[in-house]
Model the fold of this input.
Amino acid sequence: RFLARHGANRSTPGTAVISAAVFISVVLLSAHKWAHGTSTWPTPDLPSSMRLTSLGQETTINGMPVRMHAFTATTTQQKLLEVLKQRMGTQLVTNQLNGYTVVGQPIGHQGHYMTIQIYPIGEYTKGIVAISQPNQWQHLQSEVLALRQQWQDKLPNDSTLLHHQTSRDGVLAAEQIVYRNTHGQVYNTQHLIAQLSRNGLVRQHHEQSAMQAQAPSVATQGQVIFFKGPQQQAMATINEQGSYTVVVLQIDRQKKGIQ
Done:
């Protein structure tokens, strides 16, 4: 759901999901070494200039519990970074992601990790604050890798799986897959339709889907296909980029009994 909400406004299909996915990867990889203990969620000590907006309750991404907030700040990126460095001290880690700045540090005393992605907007700043609980992540890595391999086995020959991510938010579950190969758009379309039909997802030729609003600019740059099945729906974009075809697939499911 995070990718669906915040990845769809980028300029290029495929890179939209990948850009958001890279940020989540930074969250996961940065937090990994701080995994220990269990606890309740800590409250971050952030500058008063940062106004936070919740992006929902606890979300699970690839097995790791995460809480995320969007923020706006009434200061420039440079000034905000200076204030964050003063508050966070020597444990602050800084990375660059697609021209944006990502900072992070352990938070509290029970193994949580906070990551902040910062976007400059003139004299103001916006971004995402993510607090993760990496100790829960380590126990599920074998399952995550097994699921990734299952998808790799389903893809057309000569395919490279660029990204696979699962997330849960209450009863809603989402899965994002990005892959590329040297087959054409027609072959990839036929293969995907056949593959998803085995999982109960049928291509929708005329029905308007709520997911369509998430990608108003994608339709002019590649093929967009919508699928629907019992308690699930999916959207795929298939784009020829140079010598490769890139497929971005998102599946949303409603799971009973998930807490």
